[in-house]
Amino acid sequence: MNVTQLTHHDLDGYGASTIVGTALDVARIVHIPRYSDVGPIVEAELKRLDKASEPELLIMTDLGLEAVAVKFIRSFAALNRRRPEGARHRLIVLDHHASSIDQLRDQGLEPIPDAEIPTLKRFDLGDPDLAVLIDEGRCATRMAYEHRALYATRAIPADLERELQTLVEAVDALDLWKKERPSFAGGLALDEVFWDNVGTLVPVGHPWHDRFIAALLRGVAALLREGATPAGVEAQVGAIRLRIVDAFMADDPADDPALTTRMRIARALARSDELFHRLSDGTLLSFGLDSGTFQRVSDLIMLGGRARRVVNVQRVGTLSFRSNDETALEGARRFRGGGHKDAAGGKLPGGAAFSLADAVAQVEAILNPPPPDPAASPFGALKNWKG
Q1: Residue 373 above 90 pLDDT?
Q2: Which GO biological process entries does UniProt record here (predicted)?
Q3: Which end of the chain has fewer CB atoms within 10 angstroms, the N or the C?
Q4: What is the dihedral of CA 231, 232, 238, 244, to 10 degrees?
């Protein structure tokens, strides 16, 4: 069964995807930084699932349900009712925000208390293939761990289980801000390591991204389990990253271990088809890359002859152009921007982008607009008139 996970872009969201990935093969993980992006993303998922011939599993973790997300859950149930037996999809929602309960109630869904867990509320949509659980007393990472019977297809090895227990304890203390717990300091250290690395080495969208972050979180959890202090964790993060990257680059004949970890990764990123979309004029477009990563990778792309102009679009709608033929400024000017001939920036008219596909659509429409249709003008119509 094809599995997709939608999760929050923070430590708890990645903790939840790390837990899920140990017990189930997940084909695609979508990390959502802003709850305002949930609407268009779940709408796209609903359209995709409506066309899917085979049943799929969708897991939503730590997404703080708002009205649009509750509407999606109802629409998912309605979609399932239209599908034949054996082709119905599954939906698992694991969240811990009190506001999610309010939003579900506002749309006529009443919580069902759990007999064993006082803080847990379940919601019944009349479909056994839908599980909606809200637990104010647990973070999403802990919920994914404790409720893995809902989705698991394999057992977790004992040595990994111990690491995950430490990870769960640290994230739970940090995310619920339980400063009195002994695991809170480890949670702070884990959070610092997460934010220092989530967007700066292997970007979202690259096939290595989730594997890298999951391995990093598990590596830090192993140190915490051994009794490492936050300072001890900080001192060993570089070694953990190096081991992970060594494993990734083991079969790459072009790898140079004498370079820094970031330099080595940049070479691999510059060859990635997943991170870049080629626009109709040959410009390569990336979405949400860290500025330092984009600087290195765009230079390598142009040096290798893969493209003469590269543009990076951030979620907030800013654009960074780089070129080796003095066309960066030309591109930026179309987006009310400016700068140097080979390094310039601008801003999307729409003000933001929520995905690579959305960024491509917005940039393509302005950078390479279709030629005008002669028949659309009064003169074109007269030219074609045969009266």
Answers
A1: no
A2: methylation
A3: C
A4: -130
184-197 and 230-248 are packed helices; what angle lies between their axes, rounded to 10 degrees?
40
Distance, CA of 299 to chain centre:
25
**Residue range 259-318, pLDDT digits in tens:** 999 899 999 999 988 999 999 999 999 998 888 889 999 999 999 999 999 999 998 999
CATH level 2 (architecture), domain 1-156: 3-Layer(aba) Sandwich (3.40)
Instruction: Return the minimum-mean-pLDDT range out of 10-14, 39-43, 375-379.
Output: 375-379
Tokens standing for residue 121: 């509320």
In whole angstroms, give the CA distance from residue 320 to residue 348: 11
What is the domain partition of the chain in residue ranges? 1-156, 158-269, 273-367
pLDDT at position 341 is: 96
Distance CA 135, CA 302 (A): 50
Closest C-alpha among 141, 137, 135 to residue 112 = 135
As given in the structure block, the two tokens for residue 18 are 């790390």
Q: Measuring CA to CA, which residue among 20, 140, 132 is closest to residue 77?
A: 132
How far apart are alpha carbons 156 and 105 in whole angstroms? 36
Neighbours of 73 (CB within 10 A): 21
8 Å CB contact between 156 and 162 = no
Average pLDDT, the chain: 92
149-194 confidence digits (pLDDT tens) = 999 999 999 989 999 999 999 999 999 999 999 999 999 999 999 9
Burial label, 240 (beta-carbon count in 10 A; 0-12, 13-18, 19+):
buried
What is residue 377's predicted lDDT score, i.e. its pLDDT?
A: 58
State which H helix or E strand residue 323 sits in: strand 318-323
pLDDT recorded at residue 35: 77
The torsion angles phi and psi of 344, rounded to 5 degrees, stand at: -150, 170
- Give whole-number Cα distances, 235 to 214, 222, 231, 387, in Å: 19, 14, 6, 83
Quickly count: other Cβ atoms within 10 Å of residue 58's Cβ: 22
Residue 29's pLDDT is 96
